[in-house]
Amino acid sequence: MVGPEIERLIQLLARLPGLGPRSARRAALLLMKRRDGLLVPLSEAMALAAEAVRTCSVCGNLDTRDPCTVCADPSRDRSTICVVEDAGDLWALERSRAFTGLYHVLGGTLSALQGIGPDDLTIAALVDRARNPEVREVILALNATVDGQTTAHVVTDRLAQADVAISRLAHGVPVGGELDYLDDGTLTAALKARRPL
Amino acid sequence: MVGPEIERLIQLLARLPGLGPRSARRAALLLMKRRDGLLVPLSEAMALAAEAVRTCSVCGNLDTRDPCTVCADPSRDRSTICVVEDAGDLWALERSRAFTGLYHVLGGTLSALQGIGPDDLTIAALVDRARNPEVREVILALNATVDGQTTAHVVTDRLAQADVAISRLAHGVPVGGELDYLDDGTLTAALKARRPL
């Protein structure tokens, strides 16, 4: 129905999160219709990104510079390191604008099933960073899943070698959430961690 | 938060149908994580498509060749031309595999509001094609909107110059549709056009 170049473009677009085979076809069509306004600029932006993207040697963030924009920002608070699973979590926290310290991207969670051990993550590098006397607190912002919490335990153990306070994100009712729709674990955690008014 | 190259990539991705600012960010992240597996191939596929894409000089379809894959296919029935608004509609009909003739892409619909008159569409080219004695039927597959139906009337008028049968798509209950959820216009059309069993 269409040339092989377009078929390949559709197949690759369909691998983006949020696009299925059908919406990839729609996207390809729009790109072809708006060749000069969208297809060419997007193709160039991707080529540029592919060339420039690198993993930050300090925190493991993905960016076009090394050290990354966050690590290189002189206004960030260098006494606090927030540990996240991957760069997506870092981006989510940055969007909230609630954290002004530095990050450390572990690169995943420990997983017996997937054969991911402590040496596959950047835990050793984190301990090195935490030993810097400038660092006073490490916040574990790992997913509240079994693997995430296992990883948090191991990271806590390793950080005993460094003289830092260790904290984790609070568990509780999501802002805007309705109690009726919450699972028992979350409700239990929210009750236990109740705060005086 | 991220370098300007990535910000630009996110902004451009967000203009694809089906992707908003948030999912564009997720898509950009996945692209950066899978640089060699996805970002580079997709960037190359886009560059290739941008270079190769052209409008078919016969039917107005978007493809990498001219005449397009449909027009160039010797197995298509050259006696029937299906008139559609844009290439997306052509693709939708092709997906159904229900039509084996040729197409004609009008490039939009007449619209007094948007100042689109008959000369902005490829109606004249359609009449030329319809005059070919090989062509016996023109099927109007325009959207069942006010603009689509106005356009259908004008196209029908112009096609009086050519010796062809003119038909339009049937209106009725969509297959899999429930009567309870249908609008009055559709139900009226389905009743009027009822078929003997």
Your description of this structure?
Two copies of one chain form a homodimer. Chain A contains eight helices and six strands. Chain A has 197 residues and is an alpha/beta fold. Chain A has two domains: 4-52, Orthogonal Bundle (Helicase, Ruva Protein, domain 3), CATH 1.10.8.420; 62-168, Dna Topoisomerase Vi A Subunit, Chain: A, domain 2 (3-Layer(aba) Sandwich), CATH 3.40.1360.10. In chain A, strands 4-3-5-6 form a four-stranded parallel beta sheet. Chain A has a two-stranded antiparallel ribbon with strand order 1-2. The first copy, chain A, is globular, with a radius of gyration of 21 Å. Chains A and B meet through helix 1, helix 2, helix 3, strand 2 and helix 5 of A and helix 1, helix 2, helix 3, strand 2 and helix 5 of B.
Helix content estimate of chain A: 40-55%
CATH architecture of the largest domain in chain A: 3-Layer(aba) Sandwich
Distance between the termini of chain A: 65 Å
Structural class designation of chain A:
alpha/beta
**CATH fold description of the largest domain in chain A:** Dna Topoisomerase Vi A Subunit, Chain: A, domain 2
| Low confidence ranges of chain A | none
Strand count, sense and barrel status of the largest sheet of chain A are: 4 strands, parallel
Largest interface comes to: A-B, 52 and 52 residues
Q: How many helices of chain A?
A: 8
Radius of gyration of chain A: 21 Å
Instruction: Write down how many β-strands of chain A occur, each being a DSSP E stretch of 2 or more residues.
Output: 6
| Assembly form of the protein | homodimer
Strand content of chain A: 5-15%
- Domains of chain A, number: 2
Along the chain, the helix and strand elements of chain A come as HHHEEHEHEHEHEH
Name of the CATH first level of the largest domain in chain A: Alpha Beta
Shape of chain A: globular
Query: Mean pLDDT across all residues of chain A, rounded?
Result: 91
